[in-house]
Amino acid sequence: YAPFINYLKFMDCLINTARDVRLLCENKILHNCLGDDEVVANMFNRLRDSVALPLYNFYGDIFHNVNEYCDRRWSRWIANLRHNYFNTPWTIISVFAALFLLILTLTQTVFSVLAYFQ
Fold first, then answer.
1. Where exactly are the transmembrane stretches of this chain (predicted)?
2. Which residues does 2 contact at the CB level (< 8 Å), separation at least 6?
């Protein structure tokens, strides 16, 4: 039973609200047969109180790696940048278009300066 109980505890750590359930279902990690996301979230949250954790935690490495990744300054900066500034495909396309135009402008300037001196 230890692997199953560890899996339940792992899912309990991932799921706190109905929004968490919805996110896991959208990414095909969880399949909700109960219908309501709030019911699934409550079920996992109630299981935490009624199940004793085995001595060996199979998902300890995953917890450690996720916490280590989230604690990195670079990871937080990239996540903040993506969430606040690059949240739609159009913003990403606009940035690439602006960079492309900037490169073309710099290239034209360089060739204009070279033509002036020759």
1. 90-117
2. 54, 56, 58
Q: Which domain holds residue 55?
A: 2-71
Q: What pLDDT, on a 0 to 100 scale, did the predictor assign at position 1? A: 64
- Report DSSP state, residue 27: T
Q: Which sign does the torsion angle of CA 26, 29, 32, 33 carry?
A: positive
In-domain check, residue 103:
no
Look at residue 19 in the predicted model and tell me its pLDDT.
Answer: 94
Report the Cα 32 to chain-centroid distance in Å: 21
What pLDDT is attached to residue 55? Answer: 65
- Closest listed residue to residue 62, CA positions, set 72, 50, 73, 70: 70
Chain centroid to CA 1: how far? 30
Q: Is residue 111 part of a domain?
A: no
How many CA atoms are closer than 13 Å to the CA of 42, on its beta-carbon side?
Answer: 6
Task: State the 10-residue block means of pLDDT for the chain, 118 residues long.
Answer: 78 89 92 90 83 72 86 92 90 95 98 93
